From TrEMBL:
Key words of the record: Apoplast, Secreted, Signal
Name of the protein described by the UniProt record: Dirigent protein
Superkingdom: Eukaryota
Record has Secreted as a keyword: yes
GO terms under biological process: phenylpropanoid biosynthetic process
GO cellular component, as recorded: apoplast
Task of the protein: Dirigent proteins impart stereoselectivity on the phenoxy radical-coupling reaction, yielding optically active lignans from two molecules of coniferyl alcohol in the biosynthesis of lignans, flavonolignans, and alkaloids and thus plays a central role in plant secondary metabolism.
Pfam families attached to this UniProt entry: Dirigent (PF03018)
Self-association and partners: Homodimer.
Cleavable signal peptide: 1-24
Family as reported in the entry's similarity comment: Belongs to the plant dirigent protein family.
Compartment(s) where it occurs, according to its Swiss-Prot or TrEMBL record: Secreted, Extracellular space, Apoplast
Length: 335
């Protein structure tokens, strides 16, 4: 008897373990998105000012002398082509160049204003980052704006935090630049959801999730002018009956006389323990194309101020009453 009970309880433990395992893998596969950190790296900027004798080493030169306003070089403009290194050694191999200018702009203390480009031209990175802003040198750290980029840093935006690493006499200073890109060319959040639209046809009241609010016009044979208002379920997989993780509320209308083309404007509404907030999406759905990109123009709550792209792909089309669209949502700005 004891043996049987023992066998039985072993079976229960095994069952519990299996159940736990399948629950955890299930929870994992149901994860809505991966929150990837945006790009961050530290580089050192070395500025050797030309003083009339250091031609071999100088990397920058004053193009205007300072004015006599105050004692802090007010008005002095320096043009530079400086090496950027990964550590704080001047003679380390540069990983980029910094080209641009700064000038001193305060009469009561040292303060500079920078505008420059980091130029990457290695096997690791090709492209540029454009940075501008005030360098309030008396602060321990100062934040400047990364306002744009090209190549590997296409359309980058972010912050470059300056910290003075060393200031040797008048001719050499070194800045640590901690560069944080908030929108790399990879999305900071990405997830795929399925949109299910069941059009009301007069009899399917129980199941319909959308209805024609304005009938088509007679211009062409592709429903031009037909306006549909929807409150559709969004699911993680392509099963209509899976529990929705969000609702899509908004409208589309057909707008082309020679083929099916629609124009969407809608909100994804998240109201679960996992996510609260909204994502607003708008754009043209050129239904003949395999995939179509619409714009994510804003968000609230967990998706505060987001922007990005929603890529549509028609997953299925069943007569006039049901269609399903895969929406691959890539957010490039996350806060
Ligand atoms: C110019 O700077 C170099 C270091 O870059 C220094 O060795 C030299 O003494 C400086 N010359 C003058 C005239 O200040
Ligand atoms: C200046 O350059 C020369 C050779 O180009 C080098 O020997 C010297 O160490 C450099 N000085 C500084 C301060 O970097
Ligand atoms: C720059 O200006 C200062 C004072 O206004 C003067 O002493 C110095 O000689 C000037 N330097 C040059 C290179 O013109
Ligand atoms: C980048 O590097 C390549 C190979 O070293 C060189 O041919 C090219 O001129 C460089 N481009 C720039 C913009 O520095
Ligand atoms: C309405 O749509 C439902 C499916 O949602 C379908 O079963 C039914 O036949 C349709 N009725 C008409 C009149 O088209
Ligand atoms: C419509 O809803 C009923 C019950 O609400 C369900 O049994 C049926 O499968 C649904 N039809 C479709 C096409 O989803
Ligand atoms: C919508 O318009 C079409 C063509 O103009 C017409 O055949 C149809 O009956 C209209 N439907 C409704 C519900 O008014
Ligand atoms: C969100 O869910 C909560 C709890 O289920 C509910 O009380 C609330 O009304 C919902 N809000 C919206 C906007 O759907």
């Amino acid at each position: 008897m004891a043996r049987i009970v023992c066998k039985y309880s072993l079976f229960i433990i095994w069952l519990v373990l299996i159940l736990q395992y399948s629950l955890s893998t299930c929870a994992h596969s149901k994860k809505l998105y991966e929150n990837k950190p945006c790009k961050r790296f530290v580089l050192y900027y070395h500025d050797i000012l030309f003083n009339g004798t250091n031609i071999a080493n100088a990397t920058s030169a004053a193009t205007t002398n300072y004015t006599s306003l105050g004692n802090f070089k007010h008005g002095m403009l320096v043009v530079f082509d400086d090496p950027m290194t990964k550590d704080n050694h001047l003679l380390s191999t540069p990983v980029a160049r910094a080209q641009g200018f700064y000038f001193y702009d305060m009469k009561t203390t040292y303060n500079a204003w920078f505008s420059y480009t980091l130029i990457f031209n290695s096997t690791e990175h090709k492209g540029t980052l454009n940075i501008m802003g005030a360098d309030m040198m008396s602060e321990e750290t100062r934040d400047l704006s990364v306002v744009g980029g090209t190549g590997d840093f296409f359309m980058a935006r972010g912050i470059a935090t300056f910290r003075t690493d060393v200031a040797q006499d008048d001719y050499y200073f070194r800045l640590e630049m901690d560069i944080k890109l908030l929108n790399e060319n990879k999305p900071c959040k990405r997830f795929t959801l399925y949109y299910h639209d069941i059009l009301f046809n007069g009899t399917n009241v129980a199941n319909a999730t959308s209805a024609t609010a304005v009938n088509r016009t007679k211009l062409g044979d592709f429903k031009l002018g037909m306006l549909v208002v929807f409150d559709d379920p969004m699911t993680i997989d392509n099963h209509l009956l899976s529990p929705p993780v969000a609702r899509a509320q908004g409208f589309y209308f057909y707008d082309m006389k020679t083929t099916y083309n629609a124009w969407f404007s809608y909100t994804l509404i998240f109201n679960s323990t996992e996510h609260k907030g909204t994502i607003n999406i708008m754009g043209a759905d050129m239904m003949d194309e395999e995939t179509r990109d619409l714009s994510v123009v804003g968000g609230t709550g967990d998706f505060f101020m987001t922007r990005g792209i929603a890529t549509f792909r028609t997953d299925t089309f069943q007569g006039a009453d049901y269609f399903r669209v895969q929406m691959d949502i890539k957010l490039y700005e996350c806060y």
